Amino acid sequence: MNTDVIDHDQAAAEALAAEKKAAFEINKLSKRLHRQVGQAITDFNMIEDGDKVMVCLSGGKDSYAMLDILLNLQQRAPIKFSLVAVNLDQKQPGFPEDVLPNYLRSRGVDFHIESQDTYSIVKKLIPEGKTTCSLCSRLRRGILYRVAGELGATKIALGHHRDDIVTTLFLNMFFGSRIKGMPPKLVSDDGRNVVIRPLAYVKEPDLVRWAEHREFPIIPCNLCGSQENLQRVQVKAMINEWEKRYPGRIDNIFTAMGSIVPSHMMDKKLFPFETIQATGVADAGGDIAFDDDESCATPSPASSVITLQR
Ligand code: SF4
């Protein structure tokens, strides 16, 4: 047989195999994303029957993915809830006003675009060169809370993911001297709204791949001209570097956030250290006094990673 024909057949077979593999991987990713979001919703009772969920859309990959997944889950959920997508157009120069409405219409989603020129307010009030994010996000928060009330939304969904949550934990430790993360579900600071984070269990790299696959029309997030929060960038880089050297570390930290042992911390508000007395009853959760650190004494894949890093 002609060698050209053989080469051509082989190339076609390889292309077909690659296509099949890519489709398999995307199918796996899709299942994982929907399973993790469904699990987070269930674990924290994020969405209840009859809820109207206001899905905050910034035009970034995370919020597009959140809406996309919630729309799919809505079809299969055993409960009834509605979704309304909300974008706050802060009038930043160059913001492409048509992108989100066009996308949302194409998906048949109920939506609301709130136009408020917070950009000018921030520019007027914050001196050149100073960080604008804190005032900007305070203004945005107030507006979104108000809009939620006006739309009759019972939940406000934000697109923060697992990596955002872990990064926030370290930011609060490093710069705020507090062990405080980002909750999957909490009442808002004005006391009037319940904020949920359905992507809490989702890894950022999965969202990057999903956004590419779904070809979301991403709107760049640097239109305001503000530098991304440098401390957040640095902490994120540190965490990603750990993950590269010790795969699974972000998951371990994330899991630890749901497994806190107050008696082995130092917060007197969480554990009554001042009043404890010996009970005479053995308790595996008590102090192991002169033993080695637990992670050194009983190595496991996760704990040996911790030991290595010390
Ligand atoms: S990056 Fe820009 S839009 Fe985002 S919070 Fe900061 S000032 Fe506001």
From TrEMBL:
It comes from the Bacteria. Its EC number is 2.8.1.-. Pathway: tRNA modification. Pfam families: ATP_bind_3 (PF01171). Its cofactor is Mg(2+); [4Fe-4S] cluster. The keyword Cytoplasm applies. CDD domains: TtcA-like (cd24138). It is an enzyme of class 2 (transferase). GO terms for molecular function: 4 iron, 4 sulfur cluster binding; ATP binding; magnesium ion binding; sulfurtransferase activity; tRNA binding. It is found in: Cytoplasm. [4Fe-4S] cluster binds at residues 133, 136, 224. InterPro entries: Rossmann-like_a/b/a_fold, TilS/TtcA_N, tRNA_Cyd_32_2_STrfase, tRNA_thiolation_TtcA_Ctu1. Binds 1 [4Fe-4S] cluster per subunit. The cluster is chelated by three Cys residues, the fourth Fe has a free coordination site that may bind a sulfur atom transferred from the persulfide of IscS. A motif (PP-loop motif) lies at residues 58-63. It catalyses: cytidine(32) in tRNA + S-sulfanyl-L-cysteinyl-[cysteine desulfurase] + AH2 + ATP = 2-thiocytidine(32) in tRNA + L-cysteinyl-[cysteine desulfurase] + A + AMP + diphosphate + H(+). Residues 52-215 form the tRNA(Ile)-lysidine/2-thiocytidine synthase N-terminal domain. Homodimer. Catalyzes the ATP-dependent 2-thiolation of cytidine in position 32 of tRNA, to form 2-thiocytidine (s(2)C32). The sulfur atoms are provided by the cysteine/cysteine desulfurase (IscS) system. Belongs to the TtcA family. NCBIfam families: PRK10696.1. The thiolation reaction likely consists of two steps: a first activation step by ATP to form an adenylated intermediate of the target base of tRNA, and a second nucleophilic substitution step of the sulfur (S) atom supplied by the hydrosulfide attached to the Fe-S cluster. PANTHER family: AMINOTRAN_5 DOMAIN-CONTAINING PROTEIN, SULFURTRANSFERASE-RELATED. This is tRNA-cytidine(32) 2-sulfurtransferase. It comes from Pelomonas aquatica. The gene is ttcA.
